[in-house]
Recover the amino acids of this structure.
């Protein structure tokens, strides 16, 4: 949830992907999870986003000194902003435990314990066509998904290591390739939330540093 009027353009485009109604006219009734939001609820929603807003509105100049985006990068940013409404999917090997992407950290799992998860990860009912059709039917213009999250596990056929869905799981296929092909067929933009972080790094110091610098995502 977010209140666009309170956010900068940079924050606005990030929040837009979560499907909050944009540019609401005065007096519009908001329904969130089937419940009407009153004034107090709207203020609470805004407060919950405060820490996210602070991080998103950091000056690009200070965060990316000397960085010059390519024309293609700028075009992708504009397309993401223009989409307004989209589907954001966090999906990875942690799904085996019925938990979110920070399960390795939150349950204080060991690397050997986490390494067992791919053996049980077999999303045989994955249907790219159905996923994209659902987003399109809801009026969404884009899908954002996690090809690799903070556990370093690649949800595609990575050439960097065998720590990926194709080589480590009984599923043995590249679902992101299928999703990309289907998005292209149905005219939906596909964006990736890709993390360089790997909390399962075998070097103890690196793993501790990763956890201490845990991001908001």
């Amino acid at each position: 949830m977010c209140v666009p009027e309170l956010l900068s353009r940079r924050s606005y485009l990030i929040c837009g992907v979560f499907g909050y109604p944009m540019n609401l006219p005065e007096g519009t009734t908001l329904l969130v999870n089937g419940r009407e939001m009153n004034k107090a609820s709207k203020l609470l929603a805004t407060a919950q986003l405060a820490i996210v807003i602070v991080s998103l509105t950091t000056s690009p100049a200070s965060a990316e000194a000397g960085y010059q985006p390519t024309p293609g990068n700028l075009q992708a940013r504009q397309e993401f902003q223009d989409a307004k409404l989209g589907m954001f999917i966090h999906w990875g090997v942690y799904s085996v435990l019925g938990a979110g992407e920070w399960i390795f950290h939150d349950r204080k799992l060991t690397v050997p314990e986490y390494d067992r998860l791919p053996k049980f990860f077999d999303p045989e009912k994955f249907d790219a066509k159905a996923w994209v059709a659902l987003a399109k039917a809801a009026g969404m213009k884009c899908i954002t998904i996690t090809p690799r999250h903070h556990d370093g596990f690649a949800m595609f056929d990575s050439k960097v290591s065998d720590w990926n869905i194709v080589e480590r799981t009984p599923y043995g296929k590249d679902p992101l390739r299928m999703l990309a092909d289907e998005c292209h067929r149905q005219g939906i933009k596909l964006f990736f939330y890709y993390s360089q972080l790997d909390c399962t790094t075998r070097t103890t110091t690196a793993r501790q540093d990763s956890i201490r610098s845990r991001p908001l995502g």
